[in-house]
């Protein structure tokens, strides 16, 4: 295959490290303050509620990955559910773009924490410049091969999960559990439900595991295991740290420092040393998150290219399709990092991801639930939860920042319109992709 996938190149710990690497890098560091702004003083519960919604969504991905593990992940699920259609291609491309958006979100978060650690205000041209530099570094790591990514992801995942959990424990030990809600705006049910869109975004990193399915050892078992383990680890860490932040700072200060909330909460609870340690942890977490995300999305784009669902051009570059999609991923992430702030990047990613997620559950419910042994009520519950959260989030954003709603609608329309034109001009033909999946299943001891 032109994309040059390496079977059995990622172990179960590699996959778990990749998932937690993406989730923790974006979730607790980049989104805590934004979730607090929408959910109010009970924002830690938004992470729990987001985990519940994510658990229903993950059910679909686990069932599909167990049946057909693929390096194309979301693209494979789409093609199985809808065939080589505009809906399948457009939704898969939305997923890829939401992952690239996540890279921009985490890269800018890296920059804000670095500047705070240096005693500078995170503003001006330095924020996008540092973010782009991190993306370039992540490209170099990914270009060195799977084992480099797997080993680095494991080391960084252990460091940041342990370190951030210790931050939460130490902060609670020093200050106790006592939420200071002064100065925070009153938020109702709509605000809390709307905040779940960002909380779900904090967990969406589990899809990076799905997108590397064909490269994971014993994928018919380990893809699902890695997803469940990653989500479980992250919900514990998120809740612990969110409670610690809420106990250390009043709500208005959390919202004011929403781009670097953990660092702001560390100093009153742990002193100046704690502040610098938290900044160091944030840099490790965000750097590993960008590396893991670029690894997954570049492989997804390569698989979509193999499926003839998106166009491809070498632009004179040497190497395989996977090498080229790695470059495309980095270029798009760099542009988003340069021109969008953290709040808008997060909002755009949430819109794209939730729409894509609803389409996945609907396609599997209509066409594949019997074949993969999925429970219909779980799939319909996932659709309903996503729809409620998406609606509440859209209402809130329309009130506070209508331009990002317009940008999201225009972006999604452009994606589906582009795919419609591309597929009409280049009708996809059956490739060896499904045969490849069946051979993979047989090789791993599963029935075809």
Describe the protein's topology:
Layout: H1 12-30, H2 32-39, H3 43-67, H4 74-82, H5 86-117, H6 126-143, H7 146-175, H8 189-203, H9 207-210, H10 219-248, H11 251-256, H12 261-306, H13 321-339, H14 342-367, H15 369-372, H16 376-400, H17 402-425, H18 433-443
Helix pairs in contact: 1-5, 1-7, 1-8, 1-10, 1-12, 2-8, 3-8, 3-10, 3-16, 4-5, 4-14, 5-6, 5-12, 5-13, 5-14, 5-17, 6-12, 6-13, 7-10, 7-12, 8-14, 8-16, 10-12, 12-13, 14-16, 14-17, 16-17
Biased composition (Basic and acidic residues): 433-442
Pfam families: AA_permease_2
Keywords: Cell membrane, Membrane, Transmembrane, Transmembrane helix
Provide a descriptive summary of the structure in words:
This is APC family permease. Keywords: Cell membrane, Membrane, Transmembrane, Transmembrane helix. It is a multi-pass membrane protein. Helix 1 crosses helix 12 (261-306), helix 3 runs antiparallel to helix 10 and helix 5 (86-117) crosses helix 17 (402-425). This protein has 448 residues and is an all-alpha fold. The two termini are 20 Å apart. Helix content is 78%, strand content 0%. The protein has one domain (12-310, 317-437): Up-down Bundle (Amino acid/polyamine transporter I). The radius of gyration is 21 Å and the shape is globular. The longest helix is centred in the middle third of the chain and has 46 residues, at 261-306. It is built from 18 helices and no strands.
């Amino acid at each position: 295959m032109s994309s040059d996938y390496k079977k059995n190149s990622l172990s179960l710990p590699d996959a778990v490290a990749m998932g937690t690497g993406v989730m923790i890098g974006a979730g607790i560091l980049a989104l805590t303050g934004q979730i607090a702004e929408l959910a109010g003083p009970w924002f830690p519960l938004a992470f729990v509620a987001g985990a519940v919604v994510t658990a229903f969504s993950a059910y679909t991905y686990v069932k599909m990955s167990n049946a057909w593990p693929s390096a194309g992940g979301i693209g494979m699920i789409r093609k199985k559910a809808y065939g080589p259609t505009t809906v399948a291609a457009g939704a898969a491309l939305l997923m890829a773009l939401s992952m690239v958006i996540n890279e921009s979100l985490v890269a800018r978060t890296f920059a804000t924490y670095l500047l705070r650690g240096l005693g500078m205000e995170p503003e001006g041209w330095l924020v996008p410049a540092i973010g782009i530099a991190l993306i370039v570094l992540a490209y170099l790591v990914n270009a060195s091969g799977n084992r480099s990514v797997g080993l680095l992801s494991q080391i960084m995942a252990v460091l940041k999960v342990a370190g951030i959990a210790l931050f939460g424990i130490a902060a609670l030990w020093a200050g106790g559990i006592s939420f200071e809600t002064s100065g925070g705006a009153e938020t109702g049910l709509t605000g809390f439900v709307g905040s779940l869109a960002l909380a779900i975004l904090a967990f969406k990193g589990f899809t990076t595991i799905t997108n590397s399915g064909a490269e994971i050892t014993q994928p018919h078992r380990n893809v699902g295991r890695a997803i469940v383990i990653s989500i479980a680890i992250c919900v514990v860490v998120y809740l612990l740290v969110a409670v610690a932040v809420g106990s250390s700072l009043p709500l208005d200060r959390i919202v004011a420092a929403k781009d670097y909330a953990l660092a702001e909460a560390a100093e009153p609870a742990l002193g100046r040393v704690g502040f610098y340690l938290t900044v160091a942890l944030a840099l490790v977490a965000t750097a590993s998150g960008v590396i893991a995300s670029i690894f997954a999305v570049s492989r997804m784009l390569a698989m979509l290219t193999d499926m003839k669902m998106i166009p491809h051009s070498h632009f004179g570059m040497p190497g395989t399709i996977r090498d080229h999609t790695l470059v495309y991923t980095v270029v798009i992430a760099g542009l988003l990092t340069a021109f969008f702030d953290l709040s808008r990047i997060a909002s755009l990613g949430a819109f794209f991801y939730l729409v894509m997620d609803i389409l996945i559950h609907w396609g599997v419910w209509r066409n594949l639930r019997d074949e993969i042994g999925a429970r219909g009520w779980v799939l319909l519950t996932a659709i309903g939860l996503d729809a409620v959260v998406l609606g509440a989030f859209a209402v809130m954003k329309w009130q506070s920042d209508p331009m990002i709603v317009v940008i999201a609608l225009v972006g999604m329309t452009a994606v589906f319109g582009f795919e419609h034109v591309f597929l009409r001009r280049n009708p996809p033909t059956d490739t060896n992709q499904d045969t490849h999946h069946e051979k993979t299943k047989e090789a791993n001891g599963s029935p075809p």
